Structures
1.
Amino acid sequence: MTIGQEVYRGRLEVAKGFAEWQRPWDSYRFELEEMLDHGDHVVVCGMQVARGRGSGVEVRLPTYHVVTLRDGEITRHRSLHDRVDALEAAGLSE
């Protein structure tokens, strides 16, 4: 899984990565907008909404996740900021 530029492997590292990602925010949520199923890949489209811990400024960032599954287990997760890139990573196109 990649959060920012780091790569995390295994459940404990992924949990650590998410904790690091959320540390600078007073509040954080992901607003799901769309899910696209394509065989072993799922594209999750949505908006990250966060409020800065020190500044109180709200940030909204469109984000696309490509999740790869094998035998019911997540084997890879990538976060992208471009819908076209996410669709291509899952073998789809607009």
Note: The chain is about 20% helix and 55% strand.
2.
Amino acid sequence: MLEKLKHEVCRYNKMLAGTGLVVWTLGNVSGRDRKTGLVAIKPSGVLFDELKPGDIVIVDLNGRIVDGRKAPSVDLATHLYVYRHRPDVGGIVHTHSNFATAFAAIGKSLPVYLTSIADEFGGPIPVSAYAKIGGLEIGKEIVEKIGRSPAILMKQHGVFTVGPDPRAAVKAAVMLEDACRTCFIALMIGKPRVIPKSEVERGHKRYVEKYGQGKQRGNRRKS
């Protein structure tokens, strides 16, 4: 069932480990099939380097397992809450990546100190209130606080990112950790200034509309 989605979700879970965003078994990627509404997610407690497409668990939006022999991630309730309330979301990532989680640990949002933050996120990265693990509380905080950002820092917990598909959600997680690492260093040596909102919006619009080869080819065809 949904073999293509299983392979995709498996691949991007492994990519989390390959980019250093997760350790041991902590973290997960899920993806939603647009036709059926079913969700593919990493199984609980399986090492990333041992993960296979056949291990990926398929569930419906109520959490009922429809395919798979392993128990799904313990973060399943969070993922499903977001999917039920954000029909635009097709991929979700959860990590405890070091630098982003350092900001989460002290309940500090990430201001737009860098043009890369403006480009990728279009504004500051919000931070949630503290939420209990294991139920719907984290999902509710994500939906209420994330706004138009693809990423949110969960206070004293970690990171969640969302996107139209798993690839986009993983990209957001990678870019967030990179930005948090740079900003952490900058804060150690000085006080960076926040980029003005108008410039943030200009940079983000340019990035969305013009970054990437496909968009450039389209522009040349029009000219």
Note: The first helix runs from residue 3 to 18.
3.
Amino acid sequence: MSKRKIILALISFLAIQCTLLGQVSVTGPVCVIPGTVYLYNINANWDSSSTMQICIHGGILVDSGGNDTCSHGGSLLIATQVIWNDLSSAYISVSSSKGNASLNVTITDPLRPGSIVDSCKTQTIAFNTSPLTIYCAPDTGGSCSPAYEFQWQQSSDAIVWLDVDGAITQNLHITDLLSNTIYYRRKVKETSSGSIGYSDVATVLVNPALR
């Protein structure tokens, strides 16, 4: 390649980079849960004369201190906090002296732990026997593409809970022989959001030993 072509290629590359630096972009979470505060960054090659307006469709601006959906005054903001509502279509848009940009978001439901199946909520067994399998419905929500981790817990008083070793599946199969009443619940964690929830409680009543 000739020296002239190299120089022209370099000039073209620098022009593209300058254009990119001048572009406005919005970055932040794109899968959101209603009622949660999220932070969005507004990026551009700002200067002291730059002006902008941020508008929210399907939410409100926390920074406004009220229920405003658009910023006022045209002052420069490099970041803003947003609370989204439960509309199916939502986005944040920026109009500025440097250009415009927008970011679409997807609204998802909060984590909703599954419930113990009605027939499993209470069972009575003989002393020193194992209970029937405890079934629990699937969990929902927590992320746009949720993945769940399970951990069953047990308690003798339904107040203090301890993990059941190895009980990490949707339903609980107990092989231990029980000699006193025990309560069980399922803890669930949605892995991408970190949300944690608990099912309702299943009670295993144990009859006294025969004399």
Note: Residues 10-21 have pLDDT under 50 and may be disordered.
